[in-house]
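Predict structure. Chain length: 932.
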Amino acid sequence: MDTSTLLENQLLATQFYVPITLGSLISRPRLTGLLNESMKYPLTLVSAPAGFGKTTLLASWSQSLPASYPRVAWVSLEEEDNEPRLFWACVLTALNRQQPECFTSLLMQLQSPQSPPLNTLLAEVVNLLVEQTDHFLLILDDYQVITEQRVHMSLAYLIEYLPAQLRIILATRADPPLPLSLLRSRKQALEVRTDQLRCTVEETKSFLHEVIGTQLPHETIQQIRSRTEGWLVGLQLLRLSLPEQADPLSLLKEVSGDQRYILDYLTEEVLQRQPQEVRTFLLSTSILGQLSASLCDAVMQQQGSQQMLQRLEQSNVFVVSLDSKRQWYRYHALFAEALRHWLEQGHGDVVPILHHRASRWYAEHHQTTEAILHGLYAKEWHWAADLIEQKSFSLLSLTWGASPYMLIMLQQWLEQLPAGIVGSRPYLCLVCAQFLWAVAQPSMLEGWLDAAEACLRASFVRSSDEEDVQVSQEQANLLGAVISWRAFLEGLQKNAEATLSLCQQALSLLSPDNLAGRSHVAGVQMVGYYHSSANNATAAIESGLQAASLAQAIGQPAITIALIGSSIACMIGAGRLQEAHQLSRQAVLLGEQLAGVVLPDRGYPTVFQAEILREWNQLDAALSLAQEGISLCEQIESLTSLVYMHYGYSILLRIFLSRGEVDAAHSVFQQIEGIGRSMNPPTFTHFCALFTTVDRIKLWLACGERDRATRWAKELDLRQGCGCPLVREREAVARIHILLANNQPVLALQELTSVLERATAGQRWGHVIEIRLLQVLAHQMCDEETKALSALAEAVRLAEPEGYIRSFVDEGTPVEALLYQLRKRERKNGPTLYLDTLLAAFQQEGMARVQAGESTKTQPLPEPLSGRELEVLQLLARGASNLEVAQELVIAVDTVKRHVSHIFSKLGVQNRVQAVRQARELGLLDEEQQGT
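Prediction complete.
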């Protein structure tokens, strides 16, 4: 599906209309004057509970602004807008409506599979606004529906750099998690809160006089204001509830309690005062989020809804027109809630009937989401199940960007279906498991698959009749699919050892021409070989590539790319970086060429490219690719995007750790935790252990949170181990980092023995290199230099053909010192190009720290030391003579003397002692040399 088309379909034009309010409104100059001040502040926050007139105030004020004021861009936010790109599409669309074509190019970028990271796009928004002569006012109504942290973070970013050409007003029922205290301190935020929105005594008097048409004593007005607490919706309902000549205070005295009780009571009074046909219409249509004449006619099963909607609007009975053509309306949210309450209380038996009628109207108008929702509310289970089965692919498109709101909605739909209905429809069971494997509770997933398998096994047709044989094979294929999904879930959440045997069962059921089913089984086998006690990276990679080949043969490009991506992950673990890099480039090209469109799924292999470039020490290119890959993965129309984004952010975390950017790494880890809140805990824990746990521990240790890491290790010991051997291995590696940080190398060496044996047996040479380097550190801490050099030599032997660099550099000074010794030893046998490359990377790292000013205590050098001069300086700090330096670096003694002279000159010193001291102050020496 074209992402841009999908996005356009999700944006309702009614979101961008300023709500039109008819009927009498009292003048509130103190509030309009306050809003006029908003033009002086980047952000204005209008925050109060429901019913205090936020929307009414902003709508009437914005419509009364003179032409000299900024162009007003209005967005009525909905829960679906929690997806970050959908949110910003709404914002840009609203701005574009005020100045057509101005923001079109940015909208196209946002919708493109090559869309840049959000912060990059927002920087372009800022630059575009700066160039404008026109000014804009962006009003975001109902911001309380936004719960996605990524939206809050991106909005905070925009506010931070907001130019004078744009001002933002947020109307919300609760304060958003924005840096409000910082904005206050900078005088960059104006706040309009509940106490300011409450009707004053004078405004209450004006309302009673101008709107209701009654004059009361000042004391009575004070009591009414106190009773309603200045609640504007309470006063409006009071107006509609009053019979002629009635005393408002007497009416209010009949009800006790808070605003909820007043709302219920006054709504009942409103209903009682309406003619029967109006009352019936209000109650019957209260089940609808938005109202149109055609939809209301269908629900009411009668004509004339357009006239009724216009009549209600003219009477100001809490109806708001959503467009200038008077085609779509909605009720005030609190009023609709109260109407539904009275409908349930008085006519509960007709509620399912009304929902069913609405469901059929939405189905006829191809609005699958609303059709299924109303079908479920109607408890028309078979009808809803039919819609889910028939629209399974359409439903997947609803998870564009995998917004948490959509995932929760989808889960709630399927969880509402009775077990009896689900159990009798094996395909529905399979669809449920496929949709929600990453978010639903494991017990529910198992229940769906159990029901499907039981139903299929009970209904197998065994007959020689040709038609019955065909039916039997269809059932066998479906059962094979159910078992292959069970194998997949077992590997993720419960018992990885069962995965491969279940795959064999599935293959025995699938017909030879069922390439889709066989592709899925081969993909699950890849997971089984790699994660379980089978521990065979080679077999895993072969299975993954076979699965991808089958998927490509039947024209499933997105699945093909996904399977290639998973195969690449196994290759990286197996230490086959060159092959993995070549395959990732092929997968990206595949995503650009298939189906005539660019598939956002190519973001998955793109993040693997970033990981390989990180290992090859191309950190800038790796960062750019990782951000591009994540941006693409956010647009994938599948729940799988959760896993893709998790992996992408895990690689981004690793890149920032390699760059020494701890704050950025911490921010990325928060993103990962946010993704976890959309997944079921066992699945998130599984992927965290595989992708993130080791780097999370590194992050904590880099932040000085050793106690936190130690507590994690103790809690891990108390928990029951996961059924996946690879998960246990990765957790053991994380624990080894903690042991080394706590100066417990002997315990670390004990744990390293078993994980090294397992990684070696599985031919996962990438993991072996990682484990060997931990051995190096542990042996060095034990003063076992010979063993440390032996482990390092083995790591170098494995790493050299594939060009590993960061695995060594990230372990820091101890590994660097040993590499010098290893190079000195190996040079007796010939050139040491790879060791030279590794040590040069260490030197570049040191220079980068100095140039960035991260370690300096004085001014940086006017002329930096060259790489060779830094090598000489390190050896001088170790006490090496000129001759020893010459022998170590394989250069002439005269050349050493020349380097020493240049070092003294650049450092501004006279001798070696001064040079070493100055180098320490400038941070040119690593920690080991600084301590010598």
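Summary: Confidence is low (pLDDT under 50) at residues 1-10, 396-403, 854-859, 927-932.
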